[in-house]
Amino acid sequence: MRASRVVVGLSGGVDSAVAAWLLKRAGHEVVGLFMKNWEDDDDSEHCSSNLDFVDAAAVADVIGIELEHVNFAAEYKDRVFAEFLREHRAGRTPNPDVLCNAEIKFKAFLDHALRLGAQHIATGHYARVREARPPGGAAHRRFELLKGVDGSKDQSYFLHRLNQAQLARTLFPVGELKKTQVREIATEIRLPVAKKKDSTGICFIGERPFREFLARYLSHQPGDIEDERGRVVGRHVGLSFYTLGQRQGLGIGGLKEPSARRGGAAHAPWYVARKETARNVLRVVQGRDHSWLLSRTLHATDASWVGGTPPAPGRYAAKTRYRQADAACALNEPTPAAFALAFEQPQWAVTPGQSAVLYDGDVCLGGGVIERSLP
Q1: Structural domains of the chain sorted by starting position, each given as residue range(s) with its CATH number in brackets
Q2: pTM score
């Protein structure tokens, strides 16, 4: 690729720092941009954006590039956090990282970078973009989103809502590298973040207990926790505070009498299996392999297809959560807005609100929001 002006999202972490260095080494005109996306209670105790900006500034100084600080907190609150709360109120479990990428990092950030005269933006995501030139020439350029080379760090799941216009402007410099290589490069060029721990979780929640944070924004309506036979085994603090497959934080122990169903030993761990919103009841089962936790089919809505149109029905692979191996499946009834998947093997804790992301080998085709699943 010819040298161009590239605005790199510098997060204060090692991945984006190495991405910026690789681009400058390749001859591009590189400008760093630090995005502040949350400020309601931004402090070093829970959300480290102030410390991250200091690290980003130190990186920019070592690499020798300019750094701009931009506040997208208002856009984040309107486009991401409001939707996050709506989904939780509806009893679903949203993935704000997916929406943040689509609405902030590759929309608000991209728009801002273009105003700065950039030809491309870049981030430290572990993913790749490949240009495919079908018959018809440059007017019909098409871009594919691929998994990162490091399978253990691949982040294409979180990027599946990117469209052709966004991918045409996006570079992922570390997508061709293993995480160990990124660390080695950072050490060799003496970046101050070479050994910095990777960030986890959502910035606006940070290290604080998830339920504690949500309780500030969502109303409480306690109710019964019932097992598969309808017996009351505890009390929940509000359906919005639980997700399917959850094991910790239920506040219930084993039953004195064993269940007749498989996996129902008296003191086997409990898992959230269903939410009955009409009754305000949380249903739980004992045993991770309980049938209520397994699904062979799902229906997804709010679909987004990387190529702009849905792929043809057929055999593919999919993920219903980030830390999951690809699962063989059949794509049925795909439309621009929705699709259904039928899996060869039952999938565990398929959760409404999460993303189902479709793959053809290393190529991420897009995905949608899980609406419901069936055994």
Answers
A1: 5-188 (3.40.50.620), 219-287 (2.30.30.280), 293-374 (2.40.30.10)
A2: 0.91
